[in-house]
Description:
The protein is α+β, with helices and mostly antiparallel strands. The protein has six helices and 15 strands.
Amino acid sequence: MSTENSKFKDFNFAEGELLLINKPYKWTSFDVVGKIRNSLKPLKLKVGHAGTLDPLATGLLIICTGKLTKQIDTFQAEEKEYTGTMILGATTPSFDMETEVDETFGISNITEDEIYAACKPFIGDIEQYPPAHSAVKVNGERLYVKARLGEEVELRKRFVSVPEFEITRIELPEIDFRIVCSKGTYIRSLISDFGKQLNNGAYLSKLTRTRSGNFLLKDAFEVLELVNYIRSKKEEAKTQAEV
């Protein structure tokens, strides 16, 4: 992305900017926040994100700066869209590739019709449990901390909405999908439950957030390109001040 791209502009980070970021694979959402906050130094600004993405997920992350951080809850509440890939015929404790496969199942008798039909129970208002390996807090402690220590965790079900769940490619054991859902939906849990619906197992192997509210991934910045742009503007301002 060139710095001449029309998406770059003269930002006012103190007053507040809403930044659309394409979160890289294996970065945490807080890694992105920290990278942008550091690039803004010596300005001491609030920087936050509107909706966590798991480290193994990629895609749209909304970052707010300055006074706009007060609106984070509003942006976070918006409907989300994801695309991804699941692996049918196996499960993992984390419901994704963070942990090793712990159980396998035969898939030779599962038909495409059965796969398409298995989506239907998950469309609409549903209830689900968050993964044990998740950032949900119970008694002030993150579930994934307890899970990694091998401690028993009490999972509390939540109610979410899934207006759309479609299968876009079947090439077993891989199945591609697209999901539109409400705030708080755990795609990993949905995929795990999808496997159970087929009397089988499934885990998430790839996930990308493509939309949050009316904001689209195609309009997002790459993290390092935005950071480099911010730094170049700071150097430019410094040079002008010295002249």
